[in-house]
Amino acid sequence: MEVFTETGHWFKSGKGLVEIRRVMVRHLDGTHRDEYLFSTDVQMSVTEIIEMYGGRWNIETTFQEMREHLGLETTRGWHQRTVLRMAPALFLLYTVVVVFYDTMPDGSSHRRQKFWIGKTSITFSDMLRFLI
Q1: Could you please report the per-residue DSSP string of 55-96?
Q2: pTM of the entire predicted model
């Protein structure tokens, strides 16, 4: 893996030019796309920037699964209170499903997953299928 970094400037509305650190990560074996990461905290090390980016993966996966299976961001309500109620309710539903599934005994016949090539772990859709 190769890592390139430099500092530069970025225009931010209302702030003018702000200093940023740019990091490019290139995998030499060609198995992954190049990643370009940015931070407005130029004091952060390259390692810290890469670790923070990697740490977001679980959060991004959670939002993707909630959009796909629970309809997050598809509310039809136009009133602000409707929108503000819907997202927390869906997060609660997601949490209840995951916790309920996670507390099942390991040997339970209900704990099953659908297998396909490249899949190595249980997904949220597997958990939902168990509850239905």
Answers
A1: HTHHHHHHHHHIIIII-TT-----SHHHHHHHHHHHHHHHHH
A2: 0.54
In this predicted model, what pLDDT tens digit does every residue of 50-67 receive, in sequence order? 998 888 877 888 888 888
Q: Rounded CA gap, 99 and 53, in Å?
A: 26
Residue range(s) defining the domain that contains residue 7? 2-55
Average pLDDT over residues 36-58: 89
Last-in-domain residue among 36, 55, 74: 55
CB-CB contact of 49 with 23 (8 Å)? yes
Residue written as token pair 């905290």: 41
3-state helix, strand, coil in the chain (%, to 5): 40, 20, 40
Q: How far apart are CA 66 and CA 72, in angstroms?
A: 6
- Domain count of the chain? 2
Please tell me the distance from the alpha carbon of residue 22 to that of residue 6, in angstroms, as a whole number: 5
- Cβ neighbours of 95 (radius 10 Å): 11
